[in-house]
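Notebook, bench 3.
Goal today: get a predicted structure for Ribosome hibernation promoting factor from Sedimentitalea nanhaiensis so we can plan the truncation constructs. The sequence was checked against the plasmid map this morning, with no discrepancies at the termini. Length recorded as 187 residues. Pasting the sequence as submitted so the record is complete.
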Amino acid sequence: MRYQISGKQIDIGEALQTHVQTELNAVVQKYAERPTDANVIFSRSASEYVCEATIHLSTGLNATARAHAHEIYAAFENCAEKMEKQLRRYKRRLKDHHKDRAEPVELFGASSYILASEEQAEDAEPASLQPIIVAEMETQIPSLSVGEAVMQMELAGAPVLVFRNEGKNGVNVVYRRDDGNIGWIDP
């Protein structure tokens, strides 16, 4: 597994990097089948250290955890505990959904846009009905089953996930509803 351990305006020493690699390796080997790489970023927020970790699995799933503490090692330990809890929680589902998948998840390219919000007075008419594009980026749309898409969304902690349905080859959306349930849009 490849590790990328970095700090945002923080110098990360060799001892911390070694500690992160051994601890994450133990967690991942215990609960995940085929991890490909891990990205760990340390930063500061006022008087606390923040640790953000993302582990990419060959099945296409990403597990993400974030924690903070007054000590940098404690921040990482809290983050590792959250990651372990996520992977332990989904171990059974990961095995059930992915044990027969011989190839990694197929990804399709797409464009992603960020549109400017228009805060105007209630009576003011907009000059144009076309939105202002603030940023344009490339993104990837995975080809997943509905169950895998829900699992990917929950592991990433995202409110919504756009995916290509393997069963129907159409673009679908799963999202977290306000009542806590999961919604699925299948056009």
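The first strand starts at residue 2 and ends at 7. Helices lie at 14-31, 72-98, 146-156.
Flagging this for group meeting.
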